[in-house]
Specification:
There is one protein chain. By secondary structure, the chain is mainly alpha-helical. Helices cover 62% and strands 5% of the residues. The chain has a two-stranded antiparallel ribbon. A two-stranded parallel ribbon has the order 3-4. The structure holds arginine. The site of arginine has 10 residues, from helix 6. One of its GO terms (biological process) is L-arginine biosynthetic process via ornithine. Its EC number is 4.3.2.1. It holds the Pfam family Lyase_1. It is found in: Cytoplasm.
């Protein structure tokens, strides 16, 4: 098959060689962006007097028709034309005749593909930002229902201090807030036009790069033509922000998996987000949470892969860069899927308030309360720590908790202990008293929820 670039060739490559070089089986995902970019380019060629108006109109009509077909899934692509750009150009020529060959005036596939990627990512990143916001809303709503629900707080996965369940949920809301911020901030680099950089050096045609940028709603243009065609930072950044987001989702999934186990029983994942076992009739598995945790690995992989692809490349375009696409497409799909599934899982899960609260009463996570109690009465904290540590030991020997220890034992340990220690030991009070900024005290948690709700409106 004759190539669109075949002029200087006397021999053709074997089919299997062409197959290896082709990207059409994955870059066809860029079809709409590719045609939109071409419409802007040819419009500009007309405005700048580079192509006659009639030609521009014919080309635009042809492209518009192809765009419609693309949206209806009516285009069929061919490996013979290597990639999305040449496939569309070939289809255009088939559609409107040789005048279609004028579309590529003053342009190269190098600035074309970069433009497509910018357009593609802009749309998907905006979708991801919105999905993060929706997930935050779901979490804040859950948090509002559980401000006074207690759950053990952990460090080293050992019971540490009781906290408000809402506070725990809100910790993730803030992580997702940073994710949303990062993606939003990255838009200013994604939303830059490489179009008009040509193959690498610009062009001799009197093009107007600002016009194509405007037509495609880019905020600005790349200042340097070499940089414009060889920059893939914006994709690496996207993969990096996606990795961070997936890491947050994955940590949360890990907690859902733990919490839904027989050992914790803090939550129950809804039947609609769980699966059974083919052999064990009693099983209900948190597959969706496990999968999100698992899929985090492939997103990290895509990040490392592209960093590695880019690390040794001389300027400007190199074919290696065709490898930027599959990881990006897969990441977009993985992140969007994970965000949707995760929000659904949180929305529908059952929170076992009774089990969580019971857990906060059957441990020593109120020991810090006693140490603080003594410290507030003037005992140096380090000494208070020691005294309470001994009391914990006494309890362990007797198989009881601090709440069950009689007052006279406390008073032998320190005469500063009074009847009101039992109030201090109550986990509900322990949580409520942590009113330092950003702490788990109920008033602080309420404040945080209000603040976030306002941020999510904005
Ligand atoms: N399919 C190519 C890619 O994705 C398009 C750019 C090709 N440019 C070139 N000079 N071969 O990178």
């Amino acid at each position: 098959m004759k190539k669109l670039w075949g002029g200087r060739f006397t021999k053709t490559a074997a089919q299997w060689v062409d197959d290896f070089g082709a990207s059409i089986h994955f870059d066809q995902q860029l079809v709409e962006e590719d045609i939109e970019g071409s419409i802007a380019h040819v419009t500009m060629l007309g405005e700048c007097g580079i192509l006659p108006k009639e030609d521009v109109e014919t080309i635009k009509k042809g492209l518009t028709k192809l765009l419609e077909k693309a949206k209806n899934g009516e285009l069929s692509f061919s490996v013979a034309y290597e990639d999305i750009h040449l496939n569309i150009e070939k289809m255009l020529i088939d559609e409107i005749g040789p005048v279609g060959g004028k579309l590529h005036t003053g342009r190269s596939r190098n600035d074309q593909v970069a433009t497509d990627m910018h357009l593609y990512l802009r749309k998907r990143v905006m979708e991801i930002i919105e999905l993060i916001r929706q997930l935050q809303r779901v979490l804040v709503e859950k948090a509002e229902q559980h401000i006074e629900t207690l759950i053990p707080g952990y460090t080293h996965l050992q019971r540490a201090q009781p906290i408000s369940f809402a506070h725990h949920l809100m910790a993730y809301v803030w992580m997702f807030e940073r994710d949303r911020e990062r993606f939003t901030e990255s838009l200013k680099r994604i939303n830059k036009s490489p179009l008009g950089a040509g193959a690498l050096a610009g062009t001799t045609f009197p093009i107007d790069r600002h016009l194509t940028a405007k037509l495609l709603s880019f905020d600005s243009i790349y200042e340097n033509s070499l940089d414009a065609v060889s920059d893939r930072d914006f994709i690496i950044e996207f993969l990096s922000h996606s990795s961070m987001l997936m890491m947050h989702l994955s940590r949360f999934c890990e907690e859902l998996i733990l919490w839904s186990s027989e050992e914790f029983k803090f939550i129950e994942i809804d039947d609609t987000f769980a699966t059974g076992s083919s052999i064990m009739p009693q099983k209900k598995n948190p597959d969706m949470a496990e999968l999100i945790r698992g899929k985090t690995g492939r997103v990290y992989g895509h990040l490392i892969a592209l960093l590695t692809v880019m690390k040794g490349l001389p300027l400007a375009y190199n074919k290696d860069m065709q490898e930027d696409k599959e990881g990006m497409f897969d990441t977009v799909q993985t992140v969007i899927g994970s965000l949707k599934i995760f929000a659904g899982m949180i929305e529908t899960m059952t929170v076992r308030v009774d089990v969580m609260e019971k857990a906060t009463k059957q441990d020593f996570s109120n020991a810090t309360e006693l140490a603080d109690y003594l410290a507030k009465k003037g005992v140096p904290f380090r000494e208070a720590h020691e005294i309470v540590g001994k009391l914990v030991l006494t309890c362990l020997e007797r198989g009881i908790f601090l709440m069950d220890l009689p007052l006279d034992v406390y008073r032998q340990a320190s005469p500063l202990f009074e009847e009101d220690i039992y109030e201090a030991l109550d986990p509900h009070n322990a949580v409520n008293r942590r009113t330092s900024a950003g702490g788990t005290g109920f008033t602080e948690v309420k404040k945080a929820i209000e603040k976030v709700k306002q941020m999510l409106e904005a």
